[in-house]
Amino acid sequence: MSGSETRGLKVETNGLDVIDDAERRGRPRQLFWPWFGANVSVLGLSYGSFTLGFGISFWQALVAGVVGILFSFLLCGFIAIAGKRGSAPTMLLSRAAFGVRGNRLPSAISWLLTVGWETVLTALATLATSTVFERLGWGGGTATKVIALVVVAALTVAAGVLGFDAIMKLQTWITWITGVLTVVYVVLVAGDVHWDAVSALPSGSAQQWVGALVFLMTGFGLGWVNAAADYSRYLPRSSSGRGVVGWTTFGASAAPLVLLVFGLLLAGSSPDLNKAVAADPIGALTTLLPLWFLVPFAIVAVLGLVGGAVLDIYSSGLALLSAGLRVPRPVAAFVDGVIMVAGTVYIVFFGGEFLGQFQGFLVTLGVPVAAWCGVMLADVLLRRRDYAERDLFEPAGRYGDVRLGPIALVLVATALGWGLVTNSAADWLKWQGYLLEPFGLGGRDGSWAYANLGVLVALALGFVVTLSTRQRIRAQEAA
Questions:
Q1: What pLDDT sits at residue 175?
Q2: What residue ranges do the domains of the chain occupy?
Q3: CA-to-CA distance for 119 and 343, rounded, in angstroms?
Q4: Tag placement on the chain: N or C end, fewer CB within 10 Å?
């Protein structure tokens, strides 16, 4: 699969290091495995229900899915170019835009997002296992949830601590196992698709369609942009940039596109299933299955979710180091694992309904991450040379210490973005949407209230303004 197969499996000591030439090997097509393995989760089926929840038709949801998934993962592909140019983690390369110490703010935001995602995925794996055991009559109560949490957390933390080689091997196995079992699942429940009901779903407004589009972008590619270069950094600098973009985008989006389409068909066929997914996104899917396939389904559900959580815990550890914590990378991954377990305990045992809190989490952190993504994307596209590796660690170097312009841009874009999004299902976020009325968009109860335009505004503002800094980047490259 990659050069990692020729090395013994051991704990990766690389943290914020620039990867030595002797360790850089492989080809862009090998990026397919980690990205596909991280996104082949059956959670993609539940996104069909989430998307129809915006009140749009099947065809509107399909277009929103194709555009939102492909575009958001294409952003990951472009940012992944920075990895092979600089052979360093994403949030270290971000120092070229924000300064060596100025980058601590976006690194902290990135850390929150990745820790949040790994916690959500671990919680879903725990809930899914409990549901399966309950249907089989094997329990499903507190004891089952505790055991499931221990197993899932152990797999995730172990892979995160071991690092790159372990993750690449694990993701290959996850890809094959979950891919095959997911196909079996689709075949078994295909009879529950009723096209008459699906095609009868009424169309929604343009505002509802935009809301679904933004939700899908934040749920897929924008949830990964801050980790996009963490795996391409092991490729040789001579690797094809087009190959890096193409294989990252293809590997990450292939499974979600297929799963979303089938999820739309299932959710559109059954109002009861559509409602049940909001409370237990994975477990609700078991209600369509024969008993004999419940254990294989539990395997595919848990492995798929673990595949995503593993990439998140690896990247969250790197983001934590970039934010200023001075510990070895394995220790940072372990610290994130402890936080992940604590968060999972809250969601599973005390968190209440899942969907509203999940949407609030995605959109709220999606705004500053979109702003950072716009800055980073423009910065990567404007550069014509490899990064000056030593200066990424030197505040007095060409990239500077604290670059106030990009930091202020992210803060302003975030303030504007939060003013243009709403999350009424999450009580702790009702303060958002404060610009909808002043901007003539109907206020928090108007037609644009749930379009979540703030994510798109933050992304576009960060990108367009950074494009005007061409001379700064040319000066850096000529230093």
A1: 80
A2: 31-478
A3: 6
A4: C
CA–CA separation, 39 vs 346, rounded Å? 24
pLDDT of res. 425: 67
Distance CA 360, CA 423 (A): 5
What tokens does 392 get? 């990424």
HEC letters along 295-342: HHHHHHHHHHHHHHHHHHHHHHHHHHHHCCCCCCHHHHHHHHHHHHHH
Which residues of the chain register pLDDT less than 70? 1-9, 352-356, 425
Kindly report the pTM of this predicted structure.
0.88
Residue carrying the six token digits 């404007």:
382
Q: Which residues, in sequence order, are CB contacts of 39 under 8 Å at separation 6+?
A: 220, 251, 252, 253, 255, 256, 307, 308
Measure the CA–CA gap between 451 and 206, rounded to whole angstroms: 9
Please give the CATH topology (third level) of the domain spanning 31-478: Hydantoin permease (1.10.4160)
The conformation of residue 203, written as its DSSP 8-state character, comes to P
Measured distance CA(348)–CA(358) in Å, rounded = 13
For tokens 């725990």, the residue is 126
Compute the residue count for the chain.
Answer: 479
